[in-house]
Amino acid sequence: MGRTLVYPKVEKNTVHRKSDRASYDLHTIHSIINTTPVLHVSFNSSDPADPFPTILPMIGTMGSYEHPSADLNDPMDCYLHGYVSSGIMKQARSNPEKGLPITVAATKVDGIVLSLTPNSHSYNYRSAVLFGYGSLVEDIEEKIWAMKLVTNSVVPGRWENSRSPPDGAEMASTTILKVKIVNGSGKIRIGGPGDEKKDTEREDVVESVWTGVVPIYETVGEPVRGGAGRVEKVPEHITSFRGEVNETNEEYARTAAAAINPAGKGY
């Protein structure tokens, strides 16, 4: 059997509610991060007069520049793509020693769980939260490597099938934030409704209410040509990406809907 690495459980990342749905497994958490198109990244403002944390939608992916052969089972950093003058990059620049404390969150909804009573309705979902310290990538080779990693995380092979590497102006305007992960956790719900006995024993309720799961999954649509490119035929790296994503997402959502839910009712 292969090894299974987990993030250490501390108070910050321990799942308390529905703890049987929790996962601290690196592969599970990294997979959720890498298959979520938009991550939500939060950090505290440097202005003491501002009481609100900032939350930004960002594109990012897991990777290891020091160990390029690492897979999702291994410790990794989270690379986030941003603009040079954005607030998060400015704050990271002002915290060069340890880095800017950052939380990265990702959520995928796999189904709507419809129960006998509204209080027991739920979602099938996969969620992950990472905690770490973000620093700007200053090394040019690592920056280009990370830009390629992020680009290909959106559509595999896109870096190689577009004008690359970036020119000087693009390199100057783009910043990569490398988040050294301290710990993290995931939470997953699968299965159908979990109704209470007081409802399942009522004939008037079970005979009048439809229950089950409506699967939800992200679908990559038919490519629409536009812009300055003159190539009419959709290239293979896009068509294969579309087919693989659609098949994988639909299969997971339908499998999750039919699974036995070990965690019981509710969220």
Automatic annotation (TrEMBL):
Q: What is this protein called?
A: Flavin-nucleotide-binding protein
Pfam families reported in the protein's UniProt record: Pyridox_ox_2 (PF12900)
> In the record, what lineage is assigned to the organism producing the protein?
Eukaryota, Fungi, Dikarya, Ascomycota, Pezizomycotina
Q: Which PANTHER family match?
A: 5-NITROIMIDAZOLE ANTIBIOTICS RESISTANCE PROTEIN, NIMA-FAMILY-RELATED PROTEIN-RELATED, FLAVIN-NUCLEOTIDE-BINDING PROTEIN
